[in-house]
Amino acid sequence: MPDTQPPVVLIGPPASGKTKVGKRVAALLGTTHLDTDRVVVAAHGPIPEIFDNLGEQAFRQLERQAVVEALGTTSVVSLGGGAVTHPDTLADLQHHTVIGLTISEDAVSSRLDNDKRPLLKNGVADWVELVKKRQHLYDQVTTWSVDASHRSADDVAEQIVSWLTTKDRTP
C-alpha cells in the first residue's frame, strides 16, 4: 500500500453524483479533488470521441492509468462508473476507504445526459442493465455506502465527512 493515498475514493454507477459529492467532500476536508474521467478528458478529449475513435477497451486503458495516478495522491478521488470493471483497480481499491454512492432508477432519470455517456444511449434502460452488471463489483470494494437518490450533494458530502471523522479508518 502506498504511503500517500486519498482520504476517500468515491465509486458508483453513472450519474450517482460522484463528482459533485467528491468536490464537496474535498472542500470539507480541506484537500483537492480528482475525477478520473476528467483527467482522461483533459489529456485525450471527450469520452464519447474516445469510444467512437478508439473503442471502449482503449478508454478503459486510459482510465486505468488515471486511476493509478489518482490513487497515489492525497486528493479525494471520484472514479468513473466503469473503473471497477478493471481487475487491477478492484485489487487496488481493497487498500482504500471506498464510499459507494447509490441512486435509484427514478432519481437517476433526470441526471442522465446521454450525449456524454456512450454506454447509456437508450437512457434509463441502459443504466439499469449497466448497474445490474456492475453492482457486484461496487459491492466487492465498498467500505461504506450512501444513498444519494433524493438528497443534495452537500447533504451527502456532510454525511460522508461525518462518517470519515468518527470511525476507525482502517478498511
Which terms would index this structure?
171 residues; alpha/beta; Rossmann fold; five-stranded parallel beta sheet; 8 helices; 5 strands
- What's the number of extended β-strand segments? 5
The spatial strand order of the largest sheet comes to: 2-3-1-4-5
Q: What fraction strand? A: 5-15%
CATH superfamily membership, which one? P-loop containing nucleotide triphosphate hydrolases
Number of domain modules: 1
What best-fitting shape do the alpha-carbon axes yield? globular
Indicate the low-confidence ranges by residue numbers.
Answer: none
- Highest-level CATH class: Alpha Beta
CATH architecture descriptor name: 3-Layer(aba) Sandwich
Largest sheet: 5 strands, parallel
Tell me what the structure shows:
With 171 residues, the protein is an alpha/beta fold. It has one domain: 3-Layer(aba) Sandwich (Rossmann fold), CATH 3.40.50. It is 51% helix and 11% strand. It is built from eight helices and five strands, in the order βαβαααβαβααβα. It has a five-stranded parallel β-sheet with strand order 2-3-1-4-5, sandwiched between helices. The mean pLDDT is 90.
